[in-house]
Write a structure and sequence with these properties.
Three copies of one chain form a homotrimer. The first copy, chain A, is of the alpha+beta class. Chain A is built from three helices and eight strands; from the N terminus they run ββαββααββββ. In chain A, strand 5 and strand 6 form a beta hairpin.
């Protein structure tokens, strides 16, 4: 697999990693198949969403913050239970098609690391399978 | 990959695409492996859920509507930020097993396109990997 | 594919199946590739999250319960619509990398069956693809 480091700069944000995933895919040499993307953390996640208007990313962060209450009597002593919940809701594995050595995203799609408990240094893993 | 068009008829609905995914899988000729299903949009998504009682689909739509507030001061000018959030929560990639040339779903499972900002003409992409 | 049975003991709980997934992976003999994990049900799901402090699992269950309202006028007569919604939000398919015959999880990650409508006898399916 190919491992990349992603630095996040805020407590919560979506970091566009599309170009880096494409670069990692090129390294694999797989021209036709499936590109699997994996996030080895439990307080951030991966999503695919709008790549055009950066306001969508802010709205995603705000929407998640509204959905997952900070007010519950969480048991986990680290105080970041909402980040664990957001990570579980969003998911840590993605599978994107590969054709002609390119990542097949929709016109308006980008790949994002969703930071829910930053700022931190994160990893994203990439592996491509022929087929 | 195989691309199919899915017409949605309402602002929000779950469209059963199980039979069409099975037909696409048959086209691939893969008898044993994994069938990857991908949604190239940012305001709809894919889910696997109950295939028997159509009321469950209505409840899923109603549940999502309750979870993602329309009342936040969203920044995105198109006014469909809730659809982006629902798409991110639900996800756009699925992987289902293939054996004996058939999609291996659980007894009560069907594959659904979740429209959150319709009605629209949508695409769903299918690719099978041997293994 | 390899099928395993998972008994759940409560209405809602996260059951750690990491060791059993690793054992199933060993059975497949795949040393390098992707391990796909699939849940053939519609009222439970799969997630990857914290493997250290068991309080996180409790907080995940509590968080999901807070997010998905029991108070909506759901149509589905079985009365378990919230479990269907939680399953759809969480997802039923995961893809984890395999290297040196081992499941590549992050340091703090475990694999969990999320029971939302137990106690029941559940199945989890595993299939590995080389690559």
């Amino acid at each position: 697999m190919i491992k990349m480091n992603v630095k996040t700069g805020r407590k919560e944000e979506l970091v566009d990693i599309t170009a880096r995933i494409s670069a990692a895919l090129a390294e694999t040499g797989v021209a036709d198949g499936v590109c699997h993307i994996y996030c080895p953390h439990t307080t951030c996640a991966l999503t695919i969403n709008e790549n055009a208007d950066p306001d969508v990313r802010k709205d995603l962060t705000a929407g998640y913050r509204d959905i997952v209450s900070e007010e519950l009597p969480y048991a986990h002593a680290e105080g970041n239970s909402t980040a664990h919940i957001k990570s579980s809701l969003t998911g840590v594995s993605l599978s994107v098609f590969v054709e002609n050595s390119a990542l097949c995203l929709g016109t308006w799609q980008g790949v994002y690391l969703c930071e829910f408990d930053g700022p931190r240094s994160r990893e994203v893993w990439v592996k491509a399978v022929k087929g």
